[in-house]
Amino acid sequence: LGKHLKIDQASDKGPWRTVVGIVGDVHRAGLGRAFLPELYVPYTQYPWVNNPRMIVVRSASNPLALTGPIRRAVAGIDPDQAISGVTTMRSTVESSLSGRNFNMALLSTLAALALVLSAVGVYGATAYAVSQRYHEFGIRMALGAGPRDLLKLVINRGLAMSLAGVGIGLIGALALTRLLSNLLFGVTATDPRPFAAVAALLTLVALAACWFPARRASRVDP
């Protein structure tokens, strides 16, 4: 505060400006764009700049319902002043993120499909492995193994394979985080919380996929 600077960097003819306040960064060109250094100057010092003038109104109710009163207020000051581009801040933000939201929706759909396919794959592989070991399970039960023992045997084997796959997937995801950096806002590409949540979800899916074949194995008739 109190420092002096010149806005016109091309020459030294511009007047010196005094810093009277500091504001936070503003995503003026959209949430997906990087911050740019900006200055706020009084309109009375730059009346010749031909930029559109904008009025921002905060309301606790439906903001579009204030369009009529705002038009009448402006007309009371200048009847020849045209008003256009009336919109809400939510619409403005959503418009700036429309392309990114579409990409994320597409990726989410593909991820959900991959999750379903992985669950079906784990179930199919585990069910096939169980069917190939029916005689072994019968012998185990004849030698004293209980249904709970067989249940643990099948689930532990299925979870071991699933956890190995989740581990490999996490390594691959970390290697590809740079490709997703430009689709994220408010969170880093290496935030551990999404990785932990996805790993936990995949583990639960694998557990559910192993449960039914394990139940069938525990009911083998010796």
The total count of helices amounts to 7
| Principal-axes shape call | elongated
**Strands, count:** 2
Structural class: mainly alpha
Strand content: under 5%
Strand order of the largest sheet: 1-2
Q: The biggest beta sheet, please?
A: 2 strands, antiparallel
Please give the radius of gyration in angstroms: 31 Å
- Oligomer state equals single chain
Low-confidence stretches: none
First-last Cα distance:
85 Å
Commentary on this structure:
By secondary structure, the protein is mainly α. It is 55% helix and 3% strand. It contains 7 helices and 2 strands, in the order ββααααααα. It has helices at 67-77, 89-96, 98-132, 134-142, 147-175, 177-180, 192-218, and strands at residues 4-6, 16-18. The chain has a two-stranded antiparallel sheet.
What characteristics describe this protein?
single chain; about 55% helix; mainly alpha; 7 helices; about 220 residues
Question: Layout of SSEs?
Answer:
Layout: E1 4-6, E2 16-18, H1 67-77, H2 89-96, H3 98-132, H4 134-142, H5 147-175, H6 177-180, H7 192-218
Antiparallel strand pairs: 1-2
